[in-house]
Hints:
By secondary structure, the chain is mainly alpha-helical. The protein is 73% helix and 0% strand.
Amino acid sequence: MNPAVFLKANPRLNLALVFAAMAAIFIGSSLPGAKIPPSVSAFSQLLHALEYAVLAFLILPYATRWRRPIAYAVLIAAAYGVSDELHQLFVPGRFCDIVDVGFDCLGSMIGAFVSRRLVGPGEPVSRL
């Protein structure tokens, strides 16, 4: 079964997964810099793009009820990326990096477009 279509048909589950993804990103960003292995740091930008691609992928099926779902999905995921980087200012050994924000935005765009391709155009799902 197509996961994006399944999520579109189950908006409450979809919304729960969006919040679960946001919580996972927040928890990962709360780790002090000393606890992050060097192997993870080497792939930091790839991980940023991947986690925000997943977030936008999850947001888009829910956002199909709005006029510009791709724009909303990318905007929400990218805004969460900015807030995540600002959150890291308060975590020991972590810092805010504009390059990471760029990869968050890139991943958000990729995830939203992949999700839109899978969901396809159509009528928005019913409201919660």
